[in-house]
Amino acid sequence: xxxxxxxxxxxxxxxxxxxxxxxxxxxxxxxxxxxxxxxxxxxxxxxxxxxxxxxxxxxxxxxxxxxxxxxxxxxxxxxxxxxxxxxxxxxxxxxxxxxxxxxxxxxxxxxxxxxxxxxxxxxxxxxxxxxxxxxxxxxxxxxxxxxxxxxxxxxxxxxxxxxxxxxxxxxxxxxxxxxxxxxxxxxxxxxxxxxxxxxxxxxxxxxxxxxxxxxxxxxxxxxxxxxxxxxxxxxxxxxxxxxxxxxxxxxxxxxxxxxxxxxxxxxxxxxxxxxxxxx
Length: 279
Hints:
14 helices, Farnesyl Diphosphate Synthase, 279 residues, mainly alpha
């Protein structure tokens, strides 16, 4: 028995995106109501999976249980008692949702339970697709209902760029969880050791490695935005806003002298407003 109204469920999802990603929330606040609410629900799904891996008491079991719940949801056999599932059910009815992208997202989070070192940039980008490029594919049917399949390459690129940005911002947090997403072949190339990462050392070599990966992220942002004119008018500013705001996190790290071990870089509300005013 559902105890919440659909509007209540969407508002619960809105609280989640506001609490965990003010940048994402701000960018997509420009969307029309139906699309905006769908973004909230999709974000709540992604956040639920991510939180299981990062904060769950028994993440293997909890993620397996979540995967079962999603299968029941797809088969319309899951009681819609939780806000996320209730809102997501409405999204799936209104939009031509890419179900595989949701499944791939779960697969990406499973990777974090079995893999904590990466050896090449190609591996990092593959991982980035599964945990974030998939988000682009989830959102596209909402943002561009009539031609979302044409935009898939750009959507993947944007999500992947955002994840590489996350990796470069969260190096300190990740090492506390025992994870290093900087590929070991690039670490060797630039002369950065795992011991230096664990010791929170910001060296010239570390900065060169960081900038090498940041350049790749910036190239992916550019690639993603090449298709912006093919989005419906009501989605162009939100997508550009999300891309520009997230890309600005890289400059925030630079302003913080690449101190990713003790300082979490972010962009201010004023910076977000400036970005949106220039779109």
